[in-house]
Amino acid sequence: MIQRYIPTEEDFVHFVWMNQYFNKEKLEHTHGESVQIIHPGYRNIDSGPDFNESRIKINNIEWRGQVEIHIKSSDWYQHNHHFDKSYDSVILHVVWIHDRTVKRTDGSEIPTIELENRVNPKLINNFKGLNNLLTIPCENQLHEISAVIKQSMIEYAAVERIEKKMNDVSKLMISTLNNWDIIALRLLLSTLGFNKNSQPFQILGRTIPWNKWPTLSLFQKEALLFGQAGFLNKVIDPYSERLKKEYLFLKYKWNLNSPLELHQWKFMRMRPAQFPTVRIAQFCAITNKEPSLFKTIIHSTNLMELYKKFKTNASDYWIHHYHFFKFSPSTVGKIGKQSLEKIVINFVVPLLFGYSNYIDDDKYKIQAIGLLENLSAEHNKITKQWKSLGMAAKNGFDSQGLLQLYNHYCNNHFCLNCKIGKNLIINQLN
Fold first, then answer.
1. Which domain range does residue 18 map to?
2. What's the CA gap between 89 and 109, in Å, rounded?
3. Could you report the per-residue pLDDT of 372-421, keeping only the tens digit for each?
């Protein structure tokens, strides 16, 4: 006896409808009238019915409007669509199982088609084959997919990951009224926090009068940032005493908000070179050297140029200190190669993408992708796993794609949204 298959998620029914992977021969809605699909419509990612601008014919009368997808017809009522007037424009209800007649808010019935017995069993079996407990659901089938499709998905996922990183740029555009000099400064500051201190650096960035920044000396920049960060509350050596004196003057002059609390900063399980104190000193040195950080970024077309800009030594005190009164015999204040690569990935590239969108010109997106393609591939547990499956990253751009593919698609079992997963599902249907 063949076991009945009922999808657990609507995504599969969406996939079938959007790609029209069902038998349309003698297609009728649940009251026996003929249905012809002219166009399935376009997926709606906002609130409201699932597909917009759909076109169908019912008994040779053409209808244009929206299509709603459910596993069962009764889900219409479970989701309270019968109370929502935005669903009155639905011209067709597409379900896996029809178990109840559905009506609009005015009581008129909505034509419904049932897909359960119209979908190729091979398609269902291929989809079910990806519903497993593997960290990469298709890892045992990857060899069936062409290199072209794999690379296409890597590139798509890489751009998607960059655009996700660009969210911070979009927020800064709003809060700075599109002041790209300030956007660059604040984005670099939060980037230097990397994972552990990104949030306090973002908060710190909101307390600084950035329009005054270019007029300050290196010493004043350090005084302002260390003071607002809360590191000058307790004076421990002559250097911090001088900084605090200057900071209090600037704080009074510009009526600055209260500084951060020390508990907001994280130092545990970090190498001294990654301490937020060191990062603040590095930020001050970099931005003191470059009159316009933003112009420096958009005019830098290769990695060597960028590395020279960011490899600036911190001020003398921070060359051999990783905290106030914490002396280090080895050099601390210069940014290392690994950190430089992270700055390119998390600061330079999103900034270039954001600016490209702002001026509606892909020039700087191409420049950003070129920088990533010249970066070395990342070596971590995720990229190593992909390499063991025959999908090794050739460069930094590929690494970004493989990380996004793993974290967003594989971890969430979004196989229906992945070119590799789609190809496996529709494999051998014809």
1. 10-119
2. 12
3. 999 999 999 999 999 999 999 999 999 999 999 999 999 999 999 999 99
